[in-house]
Amino acid sequence: MVRAYRLKFPKFKKRRVSEEAEENRYIRSDDTDVGDDAGEEESEGQDAVEEMPSIPVTQPVVASKKCGVFFILDKAPLEIGKVGKKHQLLNSDDHANFLKKQNKDPSDYRPDIVHQALLAILDSPLTKSGRLEGLFMRTTRQALIEVKPHVRIPRTFRRFCGLMVQLLEKQKITAVGKREKLLSLIKNPVTNHLPVNSRKIGLSYSSDKLVQMRDYVAAASDSDCLVFVVGAMAHGVIDKGFIDDFISISNYPLSAACCISRICNALEQKWMIL
Ligand SMILES: C[S@@+](CC[C@H](N)C(=O)[O-])C[C@H]1O[C@@H](n2cnc3c(N)ncnc32)[C@H](O)[C@@H]1O
Protein backbone atom coordinates (compact mmCIF):
# COMPACT_ATOMS: atom_id res chain seq x y z
CA MET A 1 0.00 0.00 0.00
CA VAL A 2 1.29 3.42 -0.85
CA ARG A 3 1.07 5.96 1.91
CA ALA A 4 -0.34 9.33 0.79
CA TYR A 5 2.16 12.05 1.57
CA ARG A 6 1.16 15.65 1.78
CA LEU A 7 3.67 17.57 -0.31
CA LYS A 8 5.52 20.24 1.58
CA PHE A 9 7.51 22.99 -0.06
CA PRO A 10 10.30 24.61 1.89
CA LYS A 11 9.91 28.37 2.26
CA PHE A 12 12.74 29.24 -0.10
CA LYS A 13 11.10 27.13 -2.86
CA LYS A 14 7.85 29.08 -2.61
CA ARG A 15 9.72 32.34 -2.83
CA ARG A 16 11.55 31.10 -5.92
CA VAL A 17 8.25 30.20 -7.62
CA SER A 18 6.80 33.65 -7.07
CA GLU A 19 10.03 35.21 -8.33
CA GLU A 20 9.76 33.07 -11.45
CA ALA A 21 6.15 34.11 -11.92
CA GLU A 22 7.22 37.74 -11.78
CA GLU A 23 10.06 37.14 -14.25
CA ASN A 24 7.79 35.18 -16.61
CA ARG A 25 5.55 38.21 -17.07
CA TYR A 26 8.30 39.54 -19.30
CA ILE A 27 8.77 36.40 -21.35
CA ARG A 28 6.96 36.42 -24.67
CA SER A 29 4.87 33.30 -25.05
CA ASP A 30 1.52 33.12 -26.80
CA ASP A 31 0.11 30.51 -24.44
CA THR A 32 0.94 32.28 -21.16
CA ASP A 33 -2.36 33.36 -19.65
CA VAL A 34 -2.01 36.56 -17.70
CA GLY A 35 -5.07 38.21 -16.24
CA ASP A 36 -6.84 39.65 -13.25
CA ASP A 37 -8.00 36.24 -12.02
CA ALA A 38 -4.48 34.91 -12.00
CA GLY A 39 -4.09 35.21 -8.19
CA GLU A 40 -7.20 33.08 -7.62
CA GLU A 41 -6.00 30.48 -10.13
CA GLU A 42 -2.63 30.31 -8.40
CA SER A 43 -4.12 29.50 -4.97
CA GLU A 44 -6.55 26.93 -6.47
CA GLY A 45 -3.64 25.30 -8.30
CA GLN A 46 -1.59 25.12 -5.10
CA ASP A 47 -4.44 23.45 -3.14
CA ALA A 48 -4.72 20.80 -5.83
CA VAL A 49 -0.97 20.17 -5.72
CA GLU A 50 -0.96 19.72 -1.95
CA GLU A 51 -3.84 17.22 -2.02
CA MET A 52 -2.34 14.82 -4.59
CA PRO A 53 -0.43 11.87 -3.13
CA SER A 54 3.05 10.91 -4.36
CA ILE A 55 2.83 12.64 -7.76
CA PRO A 56 5.73 14.84 -8.79
CA VAL A 57 4.26 18.10 -10.00
CA THR A 58 5.45 21.55 -10.92
CA GLN A 59 3.77 24.58 -9.44
CA PRO A 60 1.56 26.55 -11.86
CA VAL A 61 3.42 29.72 -12.84
CA VAL A 62 1.07 32.62 -13.41
CA ALA A 63 1.26 36.32 -12.80
CA SER A 64 -0.73 37.61 -9.86
CA LYS A 65 -0.05 41.33 -9.88
CA LYS A 66 -2.07 44.03 -11.60
CA CYS A 67 -0.09 45.86 -14.19
CA GLY A 68 1.17 49.41 -13.84
CA VAL A 69 2.50 51.65 -16.55
CA PHE A 70 5.56 51.77 -18.79
CA PHE A 71 7.04 54.75 -20.59
CA ILE A 72 9.28 54.76 -23.64
CA LEU A 73 10.99 58.03 -24.50
CA ASP A 74 11.59 57.71 -28.22
CA LYS A 75 14.24 59.32 -30.44
CA ALA A 76 16.07 60.70 -27.41
CA PRO A 77 18.94 62.90 -28.68
CA LEU A 78 21.65 61.50 -26.40
CA GLU A 79 24.90 61.62 -28.31
CA ILE A 80 28.42 62.23 -27.12
CA GLY A 81 31.16 64.01 -29.05
CA LYS A 82 34.78 64.86 -28.35
CA VAL A 83 34.76 68.62 -27.97
CA GLY A 84 38.31 69.81 -27.29
CA LYS A 85 39.85 67.18 -25.02
CA LYS A 86 36.65 66.03 -23.33
CA HIS A 87 33.72 63.86 -24.25
CA GLN A 88 30.52 65.83 -23.83
CA LEU A 89 26.81 65.33 -24.31
CA LEU A 90 26.09 67.29 -27.48
CA ASN A 91 23.50 70.03 -27.10
CA SER A 92 22.38 73.02 -29.16
CA ASP A 93 23.30 75.62 -26.53
CA ASP A 94 26.91 74.64 -25.86
CA HIS A 95 27.95 72.98 -29.13
CA ALA A 96 26.21 74.87 -31.96
CA ASN A 97 29.47 75.76 -33.77
CA PHE A 98 30.94 72.29 -33.25
CA LEU A 99 27.76 70.73 -34.73
CA LYS A 100 27.55 73.17 -37.66
CA LYS A 101 31.18 72.38 -38.58
CA GLN A 102 30.12 68.75 -38.84
CA ASN A 103 27.12 69.69 -41.03
CA LYS A 104 24.72 68.76 -38.27
CA ASP A 105 21.62 70.74 -37.35
CA PRO A 106 22.04 72.03 -33.76
CA SER A 107 18.26 72.08 -33.28
CA ASP A 108 18.27 68.26 -33.42
CA TYR A 109 20.47 68.16 -30.31
CA ARG A 110 18.09 68.80 -27.42
CA PRO A 111 18.93 66.47 -24.50
CA ASP A 112 17.18 69.01 -22.26
CA ILE A 113 13.87 67.58 -23.59
CA VAL A 114 14.94 64.14 -22.31
CA HIS A 115 15.95 65.59 -18.95
CA GLN A 116 12.60 67.36 -18.47
CA ALA A 117 10.65 64.29 -19.61
CA LEU A 118 12.51 62.05 -17.15
CA LEU A 119 11.86 64.44 -14.26
CA ALA A 120 8.16 64.67 -15.21
CA ILE A 121 7.88 60.88 -14.98
CA LEU A 122 10.07 60.28 -11.91
CA ASP A 123 8.66 63.21 -9.88
CA SER A 124 5.03 62.19 -10.43
CA PRO A 125 2.86 60.78 -7.62
CA LEU A 126 2.24 57.90 -10.05
CA THR A 127 5.91 56.87 -9.82
CA LYS A 128 6.09 57.56 -6.10
CA SER A 129 3.12 55.22 -5.57
CA GLY A 130 5.06 52.40 -7.24
CA ARG A 131 2.87 52.08 -10.35
CA LEU A 132 5.70 52.86 -12.79
CA GLU A 133 6.83 49.42 -13.91
CA GLY A 134 9.38 50.31 -16.52
CA LEU A 135 11.07 53.23 -18.20
CA PHE A 136 13.11 53.05 -21.39
CA MET A 137 14.84 55.53 -23.67
CA ARG A 138 15.56 54.82 -27.33
CA THR A 139 18.21 57.18 -28.62
CA THR A 140 18.46 58.63 -32.12
CA ARG A 141 21.41 56.24 -32.59
CA GLN A 142 19.23 53.21 -31.70
CA ALA A 143 20.75 52.60 -28.27
CA LEU A 144 18.21 51.26 -25.78
CA ILE A 145 18.54 52.45 -22.18
CA GLU A 146 16.68 51.08 -19.18
CA VAL A 147 16.04 53.48 -16.32
CA LYS A 148 15.04 51.95 -12.98
CA PRO A 149 11.87 53.62 -11.58
CA HIS A 150 13.54 54.37 -8.21
CA VAL A 151 16.59 56.14 -9.67
CA ARG A 152 17.20 59.77 -8.73
CA ILE A 153 18.15 61.77 -11.80
CA PRO A 154 20.26 64.94 -11.26
CA ARG A 155 18.00 67.96 -11.21
CA THR A 156 20.44 70.32 -12.90
CA PHE A 157 21.04 69.97 -16.63
CA ARG A 158 24.82 70.18 -16.31
CA ARG A 159 24.95 67.25 -13.91
CA PHE A 160 22.45 65.33 -16.04
CA CYS A 161 24.80 65.74 -19.04
CA GLY A 162 27.71 64.40 -16.96
CA LEU A 163 25.66 61.35 -15.96
CA MET A 164 24.64 60.62 -19.56
CA VAL A 165 28.27 60.80 -20.77
CA GLN A 166 29.25 58.33 -18.04
CA LEU A 167 26.33 56.04 -18.98
CA LEU A 168 27.06 56.04 -22.73
CA GLU A 169 30.76 55.40 -22.13
CA LYS A 170 30.48 52.72 -19.42
CA GLN A 171 27.13 51.28 -20.59
CA LYS A 172 25.78 51.31 -17.03
CA ILE A 173 25.45 53.35 -13.86
CA THR A 174 25.35 51.43 -10.60
CA ALA A 175 24.23 52.54 -7.15
CA VAL A 176 27.08 53.62 -4.87
CA GLY A 177 28.49 50.57 -3.09
CA LYS A 178 26.01 48.21 -4.78
CA ARG A 179 25.91 46.12 -7.93
CA GLU A 180 22.38 47.09 -8.94
CA LYS A 181 22.26 48.82 -12.32
CA LEU A 182 20.21 51.99 -12.05
CA LEU A 183 20.69 52.93 -15.70
CA SER A 184 22.01 50.56 -18.33
CA LEU A 185 22.25 49.95 -22.02
CA ILE A 186 20.22 46.88 -22.90
CA LYS A 187 19.57 44.85 -26.04
CA ASN A 188 17.02 45.91 -28.65
CA PRO A 189 14.18 45.54 -29.40
CA VAL A 190 12.35 47.25 -26.56
CA THR A 191 9.34 44.95 -27.07
CA ASN A 192 11.39 42.07 -25.59
CA HIS A 193 11.42 43.94 -22.28
CA LEU A 194 7.66 44.50 -22.13
CA PRO A 195 5.04 42.12 -20.72
CA VAL A 196 3.06 39.96 -23.13
CA ASN A 197 -0.19 41.74 -22.35
CA SER A 198 1.14 45.23 -23.02
CA ARG A 199 -0.81 47.82 -25.01
CA LYS A 200 1.59 50.18 -26.72
CA ILE A 201 0.18 53.66 -27.17
CA GLY A 202 2.08 56.16 -29.31
CA LEU A 203 1.54 59.88 -28.85
CA SER A 204 1.79 62.56 -31.47
CA TYR A 205 0.19 65.88 -32.28
CA SER A 206 -0.03 64.61 -35.87
CA SER A 207 -2.42 61.75 -35.04
CA ASP A 208 -6.02 62.04 -36.34
CA LYS A 209 -7.34 60.29 -33.24
CA LEU A 210 -7.82 63.08 -30.70
CA VAL A 211 -8.73 61.71 -27.27
CA GLN A 212 -9.52 63.05 -23.81
CA MET A 213 -6.72 61.40 -21.81
CA ARG A 214 -8.79 60.90 -18.66
CA ASP A 215 -11.54 59.01 -20.55
CA TYR A 216 -8.99 57.10 -22.59
CA VAL A 217 -7.16 55.59 -19.61
CA ALA A 218 -10.41 55.11 -17.66
CA ALA A 219 -11.68 52.89 -20.50
CA ALA A 220 -8.48 50.82 -20.68
CA SER A 221 -8.70 47.27 -19.36
CA ASP A 222 -6.98 46.68 -15.99
CA SER A 223 -5.49 43.46 -17.31
CA ASP A 224 -3.49 45.34 -19.98
CA CYS A 225 -0.15 46.92 -19.19
CA LEU A 226 -0.21 50.40 -20.67
CA VAL A 227 2.97 51.44 -22.46
CA PHE A 228 3.13 55.09 -23.50
CA VAL A 229 5.57 56.05 -26.23
CA VAL A 230 6.39 59.76 -26.16
CA GLY A 231 8.88 61.54 -28.39
CA ALA A 232 11.85 63.09 -26.57
CA MET A 233 12.95 65.09 -29.62
CA ALA A 234 12.26 68.57 -30.97
CA HIS A 235 11.00 67.58 -34.43
CA GLY A 236 9.68 64.50 -36.16
CA VAL A 237 7.37 61.70 -35.15
CA ILE A 238 7.88 58.64 -32.94
CA ASP A 239 8.55 55.20 -34.45
CA LYS A 240 5.12 53.70 -35.18
CA GLY A 241 6.50 50.21 -35.95
CA PHE A 242 5.36 48.45 -32.78
CA ILE A 243 2.46 50.70 -31.76
CA ASP A 244 -1.08 49.36 -31.11
CA ASP A 245 -2.77 52.74 -30.95
CA PHE A 246 -1.65 56.18 -32.14
CA ILE A 247 -3.29 59.12 -30.39
CA SER A 248 -3.24 62.87 -29.97
CA ILE A 249 -4.19 64.26 -26.56
CA SER A 250 -4.54 67.97 -27.28
CA ASN A 251 -5.46 70.44 -30.00
CA TYR A 252 -2.04 71.98 -29.42
CA PRO A 253 1.52 70.74 -29.91
CA LEU A 254 2.82 70.06 -26.40
CA SER A 255 6.23 69.55 -24.90
CA ALA A 256 7.10 65.95 -24.03
CA ALA A 257 7.06 66.85 -20.30
CA CYS A 258 3.60 68.42 -20.55
CA CYS A 259 2.33 65.41 -22.43
CA ILE A 260 3.74 63.05 -19.77
CA SER A 261 2.13 65.10 -16.98
CA ARG A 262 -1.26 64.67 -18.68
CA ILE A 263 -0.76 60.89 -18.87
CA CYS A 264 0.38 60.70 -15.24
CA ASN A 265 -2.53 62.86 -14.02
CA ALA A 266 -5.06 60.72 -15.89
CA LEU A 267 -3.63 57.50 -14.42
CA GLU A 268 -3.45 59.01 -10.92
CA GLN A 269 -7.17 59.79 -11.17
CA LYS A 270 -7.97 56.31 -12.47
CA TRP A 271 -6.00 54.61 -9.68
CA MET A 272 -7.01 57.10 -6.97
CA ILE A 273 -3.45 58.24 -6.30
CA LEU A 274 -3.63 61.56 -4.51
C1 LIG B 1 8.29 68.35 -28.72
S1 LIG B 1 7.13 67.15 -29.19
C2 LIG B 1 7.71 66.60 -30.76
C3 LIG B 1 7.01 67.30 -31.86
C4 LIG B 1 6.50 66.40 -33.00
N1 LIG B 1 6.27 67.27 -34.13
C5 LIG B 1 5.22 65.64 -32.66
O1 LIG B 1 4.17 66.24 -32.41
O2 LIG B 1 5.25 64.41 -32.60
C6 LIG B 1 7.53 65.82 -28.16
C7 LIG B 1 6.49 64.74 -28.06
O3 LIG B 1 5.36 65.14 -27.31
C8 LIG B 1 4.23 64.40 -27.72
N2 LIG B 1 3.17 65.35 -28.11
C9 LIG B 1 3.28 66.67 -28.30
N3 LIG B 1 2.10 67.21 -28.59
C10 LIG B 1 1.19 66.20 -28.55
C11 LIG B 1 -0.22 66.12 -28.72
N4 LIG B 1 -0.97 67.18 -29.00
N5 LIG B 1 -0.79 64.90 -28.61
C12 LIG B 1 -0.07 63.79 -28.32
N6 LIG B 1 1.25 63.83 -28.12
C13 LIG B 1 1.89 65.01 -28.23
C14 LIG B 1 4.65 63.52 -28.88
O4 LIG B 1 4.93 62.22 -28.41
C15 LIG B 1 5.91 64.21 -29.33
O5 LIG B 1 6.77 63.33 -30.00
TrEMBL record:
GO MF term (any one): rRNA binding
Biased composition range(s): Basic and acidic residues: 17-31
Compartment list: Nucleus, Nucleolus
Highest taxon, organism lineage: Eukaryota
Stretches with biased composition (Acidic residues): 32-50
Pfam families: EMG1
One CC-aspect GO term: small-subunit processome
GO biological process, one term: rRNA base methylation
Keyword terms: Methyltransferase, Nucleus, Ribosome biogenesis, RNA-binding, rRNA processing, rRNA-binding, S-adenosyl-L-methionine, Transferase
Region (Disordered): 17-51
Family: Belongs to the class IV-like SAM-binding methyltransferase superfamily. RNA methyltransferase NEP1 family.
Protein name (database record): Ribosomal RNA small subunit methyltransferase NEP1
Organism: Vanilla planifolia (Vanilla)
